[in-house]
């Protein structure tokens, strides 16, 4: 169980850090998709994207030194995995925004799949680097259930301490 929580560290750091690290140029450079709506919207910035990847990789890198996980062949692979988990998290987050814009939900508005899309994409990105034991049904269900519960809670907290303007 502890191993499952430790595994999630780079994903959660990568997903939460853009709130403080983001700003500046939009990831879609302000451009619209074919439907005339923004590709990702104003909530996704280049700095948030790169900063999130960096923060998640850094956190996962530190973890790989102090806590080698049995889901990876060795600590080096775990470090590489931290990068792909972070990259997957931010790509999944942007993909979620892409979907929101396509179905006409504005930036910052609530969207239930926001709570777990980033996790699914992160798991897909780490697939080539992890041992099969990571993807046991119990583990995957644990990741999804915990994330769907934690995501709204941490967002509400970020809103309370003034980091986010909305509580989701
Ligand atoms: N953020 C960022 N760059 C990213 C992701 C997030 O700068 N790649 C910052 C933005 O300031 C964003 C905040 O983190 O407003 C919260 O992120 P999120 O809830 O994912 O974005 P929303 O503003 O809700 O936009 P969307 O509807 O597109 O999800
Ligand atoms: Mg949001």
Written description of the protein model:
This protein has 168 residues and is mainly α. It has one domain (2-160). The chain contains 6 helices and no strands. It has helices at 2-16, 18-21, 46-66, 75-102, 117-126, 137-160. Helix 1 (2-16) runs antiparallel to helix 3 (46-66), helix 1 (2-16) crosses helix 4 (75-102) and helix 4 runs antiparallel to helix 5 (117-126). Bound molecules: cytidine-5'-triphosphate and magnesium ion. Cytidine-5'-triphosphate binds at residues 18-19, 22, 27, 41, 43-45, 48-49, 90, 93, 97, 100, 107-108, 114.
Keywords:
168 residues, globular, mainly alpha, single chain, 6 helices, binds magnesium ion, binds cytidine-5'-triphosphate
Give a topology summary.
Elements: H1 2-16, H2 18-21, H3 46-66, H4 75-102, H5 117-126, H6 137-160
Structure summary:
The protein has 168 residues and is mostly helical.
Mean pLDDT: 96
Unreliable spans:
none
Give me the strand/helix succession.
HHHHHH
**Helix content percent band:** 55-70%
Task: Round the Cα radius of gyration to an integer and report it.
Answer: 16 Å
Strand content: under 5%
What is the first-to-last residue Cα distance?
Answer: 27 Å
| Associated small molecules | cytidine-5'-triphosphate, magnesium ion
Number of helices: 6
Based on secondary structure, the structural category is mainly alpha
From the spread of the alpha carbons, the general shape counts as globular
